[in-house]
Amino acid sequence: MSRSAILSLVLVGASSLSAAVDFGREVQPLFARHCYECHGAQKQKGKLRLDQRSSALRVEEAVIFPGKPAESELYRRVTLPKGHEEIMPNRGEPLNKAETELLRDWIAQGAAWPDNVVSAKHWAYVKPVRPTVPETKNRTWAENEIDQFVLARLDKETLHPSPEADRATLLRRVSLDLIGLPPSPAEARAFLADKSSDAYEKLVDRLLNSPQYGERWARPWLDLARYADSSGYQRDNLWDIWPYRDWVINALNHDMPFDQFTIEQIAGDLLPDATAEQKVATGFNRCVPTNVEAGSDQEETRVNQIIDRVNTLGSVWLGSTLGCAQCHNHKYDPISQKEYYQLFAFFNNTAKETDKRTPNATAALKFSGPYLNLPDTQNEPRRNELQKQIDDLTQRIDSRSEELQKSQPSWEEKVRTRGLQSGQVQALDITDFDAESGSSHRILEDKSVLLIKDENDATPPRDTYTVTVQSRIVGITAFKLEVLTDPSLPGGGPGRGDEKNPNFVLNEFVVTMAPAAATNAGSKIKFRKATASFSQSKFQVGGAIDDNPRSGWAVRPEFSKNHWAIFETERPVGSAEGSTFTFRLEQNNGAGRTIGRLRLSAITGTVNTNAIPLDIVEIVRQSPTDRPPVRQQRLKNYYLSIDSSLEKWRSERSKLQNEIKGFKSPRTLVMQEMSETRKSTVFTRGDFLQPGEPVQSGTPAVLHSLNDGPPNRLTLARWLVDTNNPLMARVTVNRWWAEFFGHGLVATSEDFGIKGDLPTHPELLDWLACEFPKNGWSMKKMHRLIVTSATYRQSSVVTPELLEKDDQNKLYARGPRFRMDAEMIRDNALAVSGLLSLKQGGPPIHPYQPAGIWESKVGGDAITYDISEGEDRYRRGIYIVWKRTSPYPSFINFDATDRNACTIKRSRSNTPLQALTLLNDPVYVEAAAALARRILAEQPSASVEERIQNAFLLCLARIPSAKELNILKKLYDEQLSAAKSNPDSARKTLADFKVPAQTSLPEFSAWHAVAWALLNLNETITKG
User: To which H or E segment does residue 11 belong?
Assistant: First the structure.
């Protein structure tokens, strides 16, 4: 008996006592699928094994009586009602009617179980052979071969296909399916007016060639790729991988053959003379979440990433639950643990993606990449403009510097004259520095301290620095604190917050002094006065010494320039025998407003804001001919630093340089193979700490042979797309079918194994799987084939007969109808309201979401969610930033995933939260207001009824029925009357929206209500 005949027998329930049941081909696979989990080789509940004849047909305590199904305990158990305490299997779904009838017939025929039976190979592991297209009774209905397979099955069930959907419904359905957007009224009118015989085919071809096609079909692929803009786990820092998302969109738009699409994503970096784009494609396997939490083990993190890659490969290309073989041989499918780790070996030769945070760290990791840098074409014009301004300023600075050098000798003479009478400044040597936050630091040659932030570290929201100084300076009359800029700081500094606001707030500046040899903390030094180069309004420098933790010194908006503060002591301090000064700089305002670079100095003598450093005075007193080059350069640098013109120009140049610095060149995560091969082993019980038998790269024996080639990812990728692979084409076309119809020909799209569902139309699945490579692995051709079929074009109206016989539409006697996915719901609302921007590509966008979601995270970067401006706020959902620990809230309400793992199919629920989202989320509230404006603007002189008809056409691509029109007209009238009687309420509701010109507030309020109702219709968020 052929495989297809077996499947038809099982599914259709066409078995009879006259047809002999084959145990090896029919019964044993049923046992394997439903029974071996509890009654197989590894576990025998009730001491029963159904994988052995002697156990299943034992004389004592028999569960099967040959020839007597009614007396057989096995048959009784499998036919019990669901939920019964004795039903078998006791977990999951019970056997269906066709399966219980098969068991009944087999037992009735004598329960033949040959001693040497060899189990038939599971259907999914047998290479598909192109089946003959069946002949059907209704030859005029079919548009292509798909319909003949579907119709043949309907004939067996004595069902008839539904009539074709009306043209408006069909237009909206295929538009949403192919580009994820509704048709515009103009497109709707044009299609409805086109009476040519190929009008629908022309529509399909236009949609397939639309640049929005790639955006719509990238969404399910990014679910498979577990694409996200953050690394996951507790830290969940943002990373750069959006060029991979753009690569997927472009590849789909250009209909890249699926075999090439596969190869480039798994091994684009290993292709000969690999292009940058092919390397970008390998981002597929760099989307894996990466754990750098405190205490995480570097090798465990690396191993978990590889395990994720193996499991994802199994799900996406093989429809297999490979992950079940990580710890032991697969319990159901013929995949051994050794074979699992042979696949693991293909991915075991890439560079580590984490580093130790410090050389001595044992469990403190940081994310390291590797990244691929890409050309920054978008910002190149502005970058060139800024660079020109920088070059002009540099020329001015150089000219002024040369001019000043001529006057340096006369300045030196003045310093020699007054140097000893004026106060002098001496930079202090720091013996110890500690940041309460644990931030790293470096002491520079100029005796300043630079706080260092690794890109994986979060900037601490607040911090306290403790600086210890050993000094023999006497007569100290003041301490000088300099807060300095640095190219490594956000916006150049001097604060550590962010590029736009590199401010700091010094709440407390506390100094204690103790004798050098003392062990106690010493006494607190009292200050009598504080002055600064600049103080922010309401944050004067005196606030740092007033013992008030809420006040402090800040410098907004004077960023990107150096600042200083001088704190005068009540009396001179310091001892010739040596003193230990401890400086405590408390910065508690939050948001990362802490000092990024600082230098401490002591002032002796008269306190002068222009006091000259002591080392400068000493150099000046030296004859120019006796000065070493390093001292001569120090003198020159200082002299140039006190010129007001140079200071101004340098500050301007620094701001421009920081703006260029803000234009971060695009980069993306890519795979990178090492030159040396790592040793791979089986992990005992799946534990990376228990390496077992060594393994080499290889593939499961149940599948086709591995191609010749080096044991790397490129050879693996070519093996996947080999036409001898029985799974890849089936799995892929089945996922696409599910996108169009709501479920696949194999309902368990993620599992084609023994525990997965059997295909409802096995011959159709195989025909599509064979047609796919025949069509050059073209995704667009397969999609065209599906949407031009009569099966797809059917009306989705459910009749009582269809509801009774096929409530889930697995026989396809009607068209598909189900709720849109999260991204499509948002895109649809923006499109019909006229807000949608079709701008493509680039970094992720940040549309409105409730405040505080990102800011409440624990660990990792302190990231503020800044809402995008302009058209970016209204771009398609595919571009919205995807943070794994806090995905876009409204998407989650509509069953989007967090993308922590490969998702083959999303769930589809209906909850009150979804209705509340559509009614209250500002995105949809704004879309309703925009739709109301569009209704008014597009037909300025039309009647209310005509405007309602146009609004209906916008939202649903059809004209409303008389009943629908009357309901909406009544809603309009009621809301108009309510707004006139209570204008304050209407004004409050529409407070954020401008009332269109020549429109009254009550009228706009009424149309807003109509628009709101239309956007919240079930039909508006449903594809059918």
Answer: helix 3-12
Whether residues 450 and 527 fall in one domain: yes
Q: How many CA atoms lie less than 13 Å away from 846 in the CB half-sphere?
A: 14
Q: Which residue, 92, 120, 148, sits at the end of a domain?
A: 120
Residue 397 is part of which domain span?
380-420+620-657
Peptide bond into 494 cis (omega under 30): yes
Check residue 857 and give its pLDDT. 67
Average of per-residue pLDDT across 530-551:
94
Please give the helix or strand (H or E) that residue 464 lies within, else none.
Answer: strand 463-471
Q: Which residues have C-beta within 8 Å of that of residue 637, sequence separation ≥ 6?
A: none
Q: Give the mean model confidence (pLDDT) for residues 450-475.
A: 87
Residue 442 falls inside a structural domain: yes
- Above 50 in pLDDT, residue 374? yes
Question: To the nearest whole number, what is the mean pLDDT of the chain?
Answer: 91
Q: Mean pLDDT, to the nearest integer, of 76-100?
A: 88
Judge residue 295's burial from the number of C-beta atoms within 10 Å of its C-beta, 0-12 exposed, 13-18 middle, 19 or more buried: exposed
Same domain, 432 and 549: yes
Instruction: Decide if 785 is inside a domain.
Output: no
Residues 451 and 548 occupy one common structural domain: yes
Q: What percent of the chain has pLDDT over 90?
A: 66
For the chain, the domain total comes to 5
Q: Could you tell me if 394 and 340 lie in one domain? A: no
Specify whether 391 is located in the same domain as 490: no
Are residues 530 and 439 part of one domain? yes
- The answer, yes or no, to whether residue 389 has pLDDT greater than 80, is yes
C-alpha 638/C-alpha 616 separation (Å) is 8
Provide φ and ψ at 467, rounded to 5°.
Answer: -115, 125
Within 13 A of 404's CA, how many CA atoms are on the CB side?
A: 20
Mean pLDDT computed over 816-820:
96
Contact yes or no for 580/518 (Cβ under 8 A): yes
The answer to the question of residue 525 being in a domain is yes
Per-residue pLDDT tens over the stretch 186-201 = 999 999 999 999 999 9
Nearest CA-CA partner of 963 in 950, 973, 948: 948
Residue 692 belongs to a domain: yes
The pLDDT of residue 361 is 65
Q: In this structure, are 629 and 607 located in the same domain?
A: no
List of residues 6+ apart from 297 with CB closer than 8 A? 363
**For residue range 235-273, what is the model confidence (pLDDT) as tens digits?**
898 999 999 999 999 999 999 999 999 999 999 999 999
Query: Which domain CATH number covers 539?
Result: 2.60.120
User: Are residues 344 and 405 located together in one domain of the fold?
Assistant: no
d(CA 13, CA 652): 82
Residue 443 to residue 529: CA distance in whole angstroms: 28
